[in-house]
Amino acid sequence: xxxxxxxxxxxxxxxxxxxxxxxxxxxxxxxxxxxxxxxxxxxxxxxxxxxxxxxxxxxxxxxxxxxxxxxxxxxxxxxxxxxxxxxxxxxxxxxxxxxxxxxxxxxxxxxxxxxxxxxxxxxxxxxxxxxxxxxxxxxxxxxxxxxxxxxxxxxxxxxxxxxxxxxxxxxxxxxxxxxxxxxxxxxxxxxxxxxxxxxxxxxxxxxxxxxxxxxxxxxxxxxxxxx
Length: 227
Hints:
Helix content: 40-55%
Number of helices: 10
Number of strands: 6
Radius of gyration: 17 Å
Structural class: alpha/beta
Oligomer: single chain
């Protein structure tokens, strides 16, 4: 019997919009970096020449710290200074551009139905806590969320530290949890839970099929696994 669902955020609950590419581009515009090095940096983090994001790339699946580490290789700045500046910048970018916070489906309807079934709802994300919390508050969904597993609180996925803490907190077994995501690290993170891949993010069906046979268009369809 399913008792809890952990959702990835970007690419799963929220559309992976141009905001993530644009915010990084704007952040780097304020830095002194040669154009050819910038192109190399973009390639390393997963920004394609057409402006789209590579699946399973640093930008699509990893953390602000992972981005900062790459940036520090190209910039003459301290890693932790870059990380703190980037963390603040991404949060402020969201606050100034909340129109980029777009649901992949009717999340209020989904979460309300899950709560009626007594389902515990968690978010596991490569974002830091402040960005995740702000996004849910902006969409007036924060009251549904029981647990936030953010990259600045727990070890980053696919490390299962946050999953184990989640299980212990709510006395859950793997078979009572669904993990929903759009990337390779989401599926690996899910380990022995019921893993469900979504096609509304950066991950392809071919990639997701390597890890699960449960693939849906968007998270609203997860209801079929709890009925």
